[in-house]
Amino acid sequence: MAFGQRWVHGGLVLAVVVLSMCLTVLILGATRKAHNNWGLPGSPATDFYLKDTRGEPTTLSENRGKTAVLIFTGHNDTGFGTYAKLVNGILNAYRDDADVRILGIAYAHDLALFGPSETRPAVLQRLCPELRVSADADGSVARAYRINGTPTLVVIDHEGFIRGRIPLDQEGAAIAITEQIQSVRQAETSVRSVVGPLPED
Predict the structure, then answer these.
(1) Entry pTM
(2) CB neighbour list of residue 59: distance below 8 Å, 6 or more residues apart
(3) What is the C-alpha separation between 100 and 106, in angstroms, rounded?
(4) Rounded distance, CA 87 to CA 93, Å?
(5) SS (H, E, C) 104-122
(6) How far apart are CA 186 and CA 199, in angstroms?
(7) How far is CA 43 from CA 64, 65, 107, in A?
(8) Which residues make Cβ contacts (< 8 Å) with residue 154, sequence separation at least 6?
């Protein structure tokens, strides 16, 4: 009888230990931070509402049905001069293309940069005068697109999905950017030829 009771008690202890471990795993899983792919290629592009340098509102959704190209750089990014020629080249290449919209976003994580003492335009605005530039005063849009401080170009397709992220300091960035934009445009053209013109929202 004592031998049988030991087996029963041992089995109960083992069951309690296993259940405790399962409960611990479930609790740890529930409290783990959720990882997402927002801001990465293949994910939906985050919409935003910003004001451009003329005080006009800018949203991503106003460019739905077009290829949207976002160029992110810091408001006072002194190193951006290295990439100004590249950005101006992209602007010239797509200036007359009605299906491509290019927008600059000058971000800062310090709101004081946009306070009354800040009178200088963003570096992006000064070096690329033909680019429509919007101010991301608190850096929230840059964070949504996972911009880490490197000037970066993001290509968004006509359905609002991110199709490419190209740091401007990447070797061969000019070729990569052109190929990425053309690839998205070819995909859009083939969709339009099959289904006809896409409805405007």
Answers:
(1) 0.73
(2) 47, 48, 49, 50
(3) 20
(4) 10
(5) EEEECCCHHHHCCCCCCCC
(6) 18
(7) 15, 17, 21
(8) 45, 69, 70, 72, 145, 162, 164, 165, 166
pLDDT of residue 163: 93
Nearest-angstrom CA–CA distance, 71 and 199: 27
Per-residue pLDDT reduced to its tens digit, 31-72: 555 456 777 888 999 999 999 888 899 999 988 889 999 999
- Supply the mean pLDDT for the chain: 81
Q: Are 188 and 155 in contact (CB under 8 A)?
A: no
The yes-or-no verdict on residue 117 having pLDDT over 70 is no
Which amino acid would we find at residue 33? K
Strand ranges (E), the chain: 49-52, 57-59, 67-74, 100-107, 132-136, 152-156, 162-167
CA separation for the pair 123, 50 (Å, rounded): 17
Q: Please state, in angstroms and rounded to a whole number, the distance separating the CA atoms of residues 7 and 12.
A: 9
The DSSP bridge pattern shows strands 49-52 and 132-136 to be antiparallel
| Residue 14, phi then psi, degrees to nearest 5 | -60, -45
The one-letter amino acid at 136: D
**HSE-CB for 158 with a 13 A CA cutoff:** 21
Three-class secondary structure of residue 201 per DSSP: coil
